[in-house]
Structures are given as structure tokens and as C-alpha cells.
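Record type: monomer structure entry
Structure origin: computed from sequence
Chain ID: A
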Amino acid sequence: MAEVTIGMASKLTEIKIPTIRYYEEIGLISPRARTESNRRLYAETDLSRLRFIRHARELGFDIEAIRAMINLQAHPEKSCSEIDQIANKHLADVNRRIAGLQALKRELSRMIEGCNCGRIDECRIIEVLQDHGQCKNDHSHMNEKFK
């Protein structure tokens, strides 16, 4: 395959142009030299790397884990145990989030079931939301961004 422009690379990899530029900026892909017409051209190896990054991101790997796996790819003769460790750590994180979401679901269900759909001043949902002590699960860690 001949080299392609960033627009075509975007279409072929389903990654937006600004995201491709960002990946270049942070070093996940090598910056492309510009042609005489000031266009970036991407080879099949670049497209393959972009597809790898997109799929890893879809699976929830963070940028640093992806960077580590890319760096390890430069040493194909090495054991893949480090990549296994990265994937296992990510799986453990996913399992922790799932457990937290299941606890959150149970708590929300309990609140909703406890509400008799009467008046607002008797609403069980409002009551529980106003007094975290009435919760049966500690879900305070679930949404750190609200603290």
C-alpha cells in the first residue's frame, strides 16, 4: 500500500485527525515528515500502529499501558510476560470497577424499592441521598471526580 494522507489514515483507522496528531505529539506514533506540499504521509506500519492504539483504547487501556506495550513490541525476542502483567493489571482494574458498579446498582435499587412514590417530603430516595449513613455500601470511591 502506498503512503496515505492524514485524512485517509483517519478514514482507514477510524481515528479522528486531531487524535492522530495527539498520538504523534505524545510519542505513541512517530511524527511523520512533511512532503513538499506540507502534507503528512502515513505508511502501512503507521496505520497498523494506529489500529493497535484504537483497539487498546476501546478495551480501556490507558495511554501509559499502551506506551509500555508499544515499547515492548520493539523487542520481539523477549518474553511477553510484561505484556501479560499489563493486561492482568487492567483486568483487575476492570473487575474492581465492575464490583463497584454492582454495589452501586444494589444501593440504587434499594433506594428506589424503599420509595413508596408518596410526597417529596416522604421520599426515601431524597432521604438516603441526604444521609449517606443510610447506605448499605460504601460507594464513595466510585465517583472521585465529584469530590
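Annotation 1: The chain has a mean pLDDT of 87.
Annotation 2: The helical segments are 6-13, 17-25, 44-58, 63-73, 81-114, 124-130.
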